[in-house]
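Archive entry: two folds, one per protein. Generate the first.
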Amino acid sequence: MNIVEAQPQLTAHFGDLVRQNRLAHAYLLAGPAGSGKKELALWIAKLLFCEHLSADGPCDHCSECTRISEHEHPDVVEVSPTGLSIKIDQIRYLKSEFAKSGVEGAQKVFIIEDAEKMSTSAANGLLKFLEEPSGTVTAFLLTSEQNKILPTIISRCQLLELNAPALSYLVEKLKAKGISQDQAILLSNLTKDADQAEKIGTDEDFQKLLTKLWDWYSAVLRNDLISFVKVQADLVPLVDSREKQDELLFLIALLARDLMLFANDPSQKFVFTMFEKDFSSKMANISAVAATDACEAVLKKWRLLSSNVSIQNILESLTLELCDCYHR
């Protein structure tokens, strides 16, 4: 991710702060996956250490920038969860590092990923530094779930919220990596993380799932009960994990939304542009009200996944409800 392109206002803001020597001792960077939290923290670290800093920012080529990019700089310390949480021992290590002078200079930078995963003891252990910072130290706490961070931690940091990159930015980034326009639009609606989108888009199972999904939904739209059989035969075998099951239901929700939009206004912009040419024939005898009811049915069924209802049961009952919505 080019963080300057993805977050131009924040990079300009931090560039000014560094030039004016007004950087605070602790920041909480909050935003969804793909918003560039880690990239921004590393970019700021480069601002502080770069050997050839210019008005445009760090050079990204000197030895200092290179070591930061490769996570090998001794004065840029990164911590991330081990297992499901950040442990107290990791925070003790950070605190011991806080107390030391920089290996190669006075400045030190600490980056704590998924800060919401700090155990209670770890979070409490971090408070002392945040209350009484020592030396030229700047800490960046990164989180996608701000509501899980202790209020006492939040109150001792400067909070900055990062928005997900614009859809058009993600689409162009994916197209630059050889992904088709249709796929790039779909993937950019599925995730705001460009790296994750590229990974999904190059997964053969995902491509197979898209084909099977449209076959199943097409059968639903023509009120063909073969759609009920396709659940077990075609869809369920391709979603053998909770993550994939959630992804499938999200795709179904996006497709139902596309069809609802088409039923109300065919000139809308759609997510499944690869199937758009078929929307007119598939929706010929389906009303806007029916398409809206179907969209609502999908959203209600999606919530059942968190109640440990099996994906096959969810999809089979959804198939019957969709047939009823579209054709009653």
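Generate the second and append.
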Amino acid sequence: MVDPMKRRELLRLSVVWPLMIKTENGKARGETRNITGEGFFLYCSERLREGVVYPVVIKLPEKLVEMKGKVTWSNL
């Protein structure tokens, strides 16, 4: 985990890729807004709970990438 004071110093790449998140209420659509070596910022119209690990599928231009991600900050 990156020190909070260093978090803003990470290289950020602005990319918008569609994604699907499996939540307690079913599937939610969203998109990435930027990525770093430590994680990514995403936009999703459904509230995601901090501390919860969600399965995520990101649609890259040439393939689908499946992963799990823990929500560390949420602002809906």
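Annotation attached to the second fold: The first strand starts at residue 13 and ends at 14. The CA atoms of residues 12 and 36 lie 5 Å apart.
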